[in-house]
Amino acid sequence: MDEYGVSAAELRACSLDSFADGVFGPLENTISMPWLMRLGQGKSACCYCPLCLSEGREAYFRLIWRLAFVTHCPAHGVLLQQGCPACGDPVWPASGKYMARQPGLWSDIDSCPRCRNAYSVAPATFVGNPDTVRRHLELARAASSDSTLAGGSSQAYFAGLRAICQMLVRKGNEKLAPHMPLPQPVTEAGQYIEYFPSATRAMLIEAAAWLTDDWPHRFIMTCQSARMSKGAFHGMTSKLPEWVRAVVEQNLSKANRVLSDVEISTTVEHLRQKGRKPTKQAILRELGVTVSQTLNRKQSLRRRATREECLEVLAQFMKMAATAPTVRHERNTMTRDCLIFLVSMLSGKTAKQVCTLSETEARRTIAQADWSLSDMKRLRTQIDVLCRTYENAAAEWCDSNPIDAAAPWFISRSGKPFSAHTVRSRVSKLAQNCTHPSLWNSVNAFVGALQRDHDPLS
Q1: What is the predicted pLDDT for the residue at 30?
Q2: Residues 234 and 189 placed together within one structural domain of the fold
Q3: Residue 139 domain-assigned?
Q4: Is 290 part of a structural domain of the chain?
Q5: What is this structure's pTM?
Q6: What is the secondary structure of 226-287 as a DSSP string?
Q7: Which of 234, 236, 174, 240 is nearest to 207 (CA)?
Q8: Which among 45, 265, 308, 443 is placed 20 to 30 Å from 142, CA to CA?
Q9: What is the pLDDT at residue 458?
Q10: What is the pLDDT of residue 336?
Q11: What is the CA radius of gyration of the chain?
Q12: Quick one: 318 and 422 in the same domain?
């Protein structure tokens, strides 16, 4: 109790600090606090109830009018107004610049300093649901923990409510509107909830509050019905309260994105190893993606190359290896990649699996090929040259140290294990020029293509 007979608790109850525990936390920077309306920043800065200003002997602005979720007057149920009803100028204190330009010009707090029109004559608009505002005010003042409340506490609840409001105004999220009580999509994208007009804020908050009811079931069902992905919260995930982030991470699919050939091929192989059929839906579900144009395109392409296509690509590959420059080991690395591609077609192993073979295993695979066939006979001499060239290169990369017979034969220029990444890119480029567009443009389309029992339609 101070000398005026007012306690600290009473003073706190008359300031924004009274909502700190229940809404936005400690008041460190009132310019950028969540749910706090900015003063002097445009027409959406300060709100008022015309009926409240017309009551009593002295008009004053209520503290709660600075809270963005207070879109209606809890006493009269009318929509809060913004700006002068006559000239549209921002409400106090944004009028300070105007008064500074004309010294001596002052007006009552309940009237416009520019046109002197009274704010209390603004029309009372009875739209929206003031009960939502009253319920939120009770939560804000209580600042309590409640296991039945989404988030478990009022502060966590308001943090999540604001995040959902921000998600609703993002571009592309208007597809949620038909699945929830949102009269019309909000087109003023890219703004914070505090900057929207009262009517728009009321609509957004009502919709967000509806999503938090029966949490998380209604939220999940609505998002899935609208085919919403995690991309709806892109850039916001780190700022989401835990109760919202956990539901988003666990129940919403990843954003629609471009899948690489490697991702799709790896997923197909993984599904087959688990004994599951690699259908389109199974692949999408495994990758956590709702739609993929890349996968749609691949589903309609041939998955296996013909023998003629394989020999054509191999011939072009060998030609590139023979004419590649010798600087920076370009010819040697091209030769290595060409041999990996050849062994993959002969053995039925992927390029990555071939990189784990020893020299003995790789040479045995090449030796066991049917070189008596006319289309293979003409390549035999060139392949022998490639093997000798790579043998010398591998010895140089290992500093002339003998390579362990059981160690992988195909290595990088630094003598370390190789993962065939350059093979994939080189085959992909060659296939674009040497094969029909109906063939899947991936090194995996050529796996086992030179085996005796290869069937391009299988």
Answers
A1: 58
A2: yes
A3: yes
A4: yes
A5: 0.54
A6: TT-BGGGGTTTGGGS-HHHHHHHHHHSBBPP-PPPHHHHHHHHHHHHHTT----HHHHHHHH
A7: 174
A8: 45
A9: 47
A10: 92
A11: 35
A12: yes
